[in-house]
Amino acid sequence: MRAVGQQNFVDDQFPPTPRSLYKSPHKRKRSEDIIWLRPRDIRTDHAWTVFRGNTITGTDIVQGSLGNCWFLAALSVIAEQRPELILKLVLTKTLSSYGIYQLRLCHKGVWQTVTIDDYLPCHSHYKNLVYSRSTHGQLWVSLVEKAHAKLHGSYEAVVSGSIEDGLRELTGVPCESLRLDVSKIDEIWARLESSLQSNFVLGASCGGDLGPSVYKAVGLVDNHAYSILQLEYIRGERIMLIRNPWAKTDWKGDWSATSPTWASEQERKKYYRVDRGSFWMSVLDFFKYFQTVTICKLHADYEELRYADQFGTNKSLPLHSSNSYHLSVLKSTCIYISIIQSTSRKQDKHVPPTSFILKNLNKTIEPIKIWKPKAVSHHTAELMLDTGDYILFPFALGDEVLDFVLGFYSSQPLIVEVKPTNQHNFLTTLHKGMTSPNKGISTTPLMALRFYIMSANDGSQLFLAHNTHHSAASSLEVSTTSHVLPPFSWRGSLFTQDVIPPLSSQLINVIRPGGDPEPAQTHFSATETHKLKESHFPQLTPMFSVLPIK
Q1: Does residue 17 share a domain with residue 135?
Q2: Where is the Calpain catalytic domain (predicted)?
Q3: Where is the domain boundary, 370, 399, 434?
Q4: Are residues 17 and 143 in the same domain?
């Protein structure tokens, strides 16, 4: 940041130049229609202010020509349902005579204070704002949008996304998206009821395959986000109170303000004591016209802890993270544990699967819980922890060093001690976790041998063999094949031969998909032997060490 004269501050990291508008060099050459102006030079019908009055609503937000409706929709949902959070995001709440503002956003799992100047993109001819703005001369929407663009490198970089992404960046809390499937209508209705009872923020994405004209005909906006405010039963039918944060159109179907579905005018007036933009619709219509619901699990009184870490720094055992986390729970707590990978939003489809192993140091029966790996940028586990001590091992099925943030979001304070991961303790816990009763881990008994497969949602797999025989070794052959592109083997071969001693377990292989659209096929066979000694092909690295069963 640098000063010009006594008052005009210019942000050197995000300057008022084409490179802050576009990430593509060829587009920067076509930016002559946009100029950067400070508020005092921008055309407006009102005197500029950061906030006007004490009321913040979603109707304050007006989208410009930038395709970031996903972020503005999340912003409008927050403004509608939890407006006090907007005040926490905008740290500079009054006009700055120096043209400098600070805002707070959660970027890649880390809360960051973002400093920007007040230059904003404007039409070169009309001298008004090109991108988002607020009504009544408020600056807060344009400032939040600029801080968001700065974190991502340019305004163009924030084009396209999901309301889930936006809510995470604005709140920092775990979010979950549910795809609407009419066969799961009862299950999703129950989730929505419990979420509203918990005072969570709920957003819904309107749009699908019906076409823009269909949505327009019924008073909805295609590819737009709405808030879910309330659920009700009327004469046995389930209806929902929905709000369009921008209040531009009115729903025209059943249970609308003009619908004959209401039993009487008195009943209609009872339920339509709401402002413009809010409307009731049946749950069946909701599932017809909306695609997803996003639950933002925002608790006013929860504690947050975040730790930066890495996967893959130990080349001999790249599964585990650099650190393990020793938790002391002083009072029973509801907790969300999240692995947040440091990737851009548009790389989400290419992130490696991640997971957790939690060891309860207070239990001797089934003390270990392991979660199925998921290839998502934000992997969150929700659970209840009783008073006591625990060790958490994050792990990933990645091929390279990977930065991530581990987040804890809990109803009660935690004591967390971070220690370098002990390789032997991690492997022992992984083996025991995979052989414990777990959903998502298939088990095949081959005489005294148990063969376990833990599969990720991207086709990655971990194979573990568990020889329970007291005197005989198990000779195991495993081969993995695919139709077109061969998968990648961490063992160095898709065919393995292992003679596993009695009362021993071994991680046999870790398979990553090679790009074949069809899932890989695994074939295995085993025999018991008292004659063969322990042997392995390929030779074992530390990650595939044989461990005794205790």
Answers
A1: yes
A2: 8-299
A3: 434
A4: yes
The active-site residue, picked from 68, 244, 467, 509, is 244
Residue 165 contacts residue 158 (beta carbons within 8 Å)? no
Question: What does the alpha-carbon distance between residue 399 and residue 500 come to, in Å, rounded to a whole number?
Answer: 27
Tokens of 209: 């395959």
Return the structure tokens found at 123. 């039409």
pTM above 0.85, yes or no: yes
Active site residue 334: no
Evaluate whether 54 touches 46 at the Cβ level (below 8 Å). no
Nearest 5°: CA angle at 88, between 82 and 91?
A: 145
Active site residue 350: no
Is the predicted pLDDT of residue 34 greater than 80, yes or no? Answer: yes
Structural domain including 534 reads: 440-548
| Residue 221 is assigned to a structural domain of this protein | yes
Q: How confident is the model at residue 494 (pLDDT cuts 50, 70, 90)?
A: very high
Task: Look at residues 434, 450, 473 and tell me which one is the last residue of a structural domain.
Answer: 434
Q: Catalytic: which of 106, 148, 175, 224?
A: 224
Query: Active site residue: 68, 69, 175, 467, which one?
Result: 69
Say if CB 175 and CB 166 are below 8 A apart: no
> Does 106 participate in catalysis according to the annotation?
no
For residue 167, being part of any structural domain is answered with no
Alpha carbons 101 and 121: distance in angstroms, whole number: 16
- Give pLDDT tens digits for 352-392: 999 999 999 998 777 899 999 999 999 999 999 999 999 99
Distance of alpha carbon 329 from alpha carbon 435, whole angstroms: 26
